[in-house]
C-alpha cells in the first residue's frame, strides 16, 4: 500500500487589531484597514477575505463554513440571521455571536457608508 503525502499549506496573514476589553456583551472590537490585507469595504471581499476575517476574530472552527458555502463579501452583506443560524450548519452559540457581533455590524457600517 502506498502512503499518501501530507500537504501542508502555510499562509502568512497580517493580523487585525482586536480589543477584547470593555466588551460586556462578548463582542470584539476590530480595527479594519488595508493593513489587514482586506479592502475596507466588505462588499469588495473575496471568499478568503471573509474566511480570514472570521479566523482572525476568533472563529477559526466556523470560518470554514463560509468557504464551503462560497460566501464572499457581497453574500455576507446579504445574509439574514436565519441564513447564519441555519444555512451554515454551525452550532447555535457561535452562530448567534457571528451574526450579532460581526455580520450585522458589518452590514450596518456598509449601509451607513454607502447611503450618502
From TrEMBL:
Q: Where is the SAM domain?
A: 45-93
Matches recorded under SUPFAM superfamilies: SAM/Pointed domain (SSF47769)
Q: Which InterPro entries match?
A: PcG_chromatin_remod_factors, SAM, SAM/pointed_sf
A biological process from GO:
negative regulation of DNA-templated transcription
Q: Name one GO cellular component term.
A: nucleus
An example Gene Ontology molecular-function term: chromatin binding
Q: CDD domains of this UniProt entry? A: SAM_Atherin-like
Pfam families the record matches: SAM_1
**Name by which UniProt lists this protein:** Sterile alpha motif domain containing 13
Amino acid at each position: 500500500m502506498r502512503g499518501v503525502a501530507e500537504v501542508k499549506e502555510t499562509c502568512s496573514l497580517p493580523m487585525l487589531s482586536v480589543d477584547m476589553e470593555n466588551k460586556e456583551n462578548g463582542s470584539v472590537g476590530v480595527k479594519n484597514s488595508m493593513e489587514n490585507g482586506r479592502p475596507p469595504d466588505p462588499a469588495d471581499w473575496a471568499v478568503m477575505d471573509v474566511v480570514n476575517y472570521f479566523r482572525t476574530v476568533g472563529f477559526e472552527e466556523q470560518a470554514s463554513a463560509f468557504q464551503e458555502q462560497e460566501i464572499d463579501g457581497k453574500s455576507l452583506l446579504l445574509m439574514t440571521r436565519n441564513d447564519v443560524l441555519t444555512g451554515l450548519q454551525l452550532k447555535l452559540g457561535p452562530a448567534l455571536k457571528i451574526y450579532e457581533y460581526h455580520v450585522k455590524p458589518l452590514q450596518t457600517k456598509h449601509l451607513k457608508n454607502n447611503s450618502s
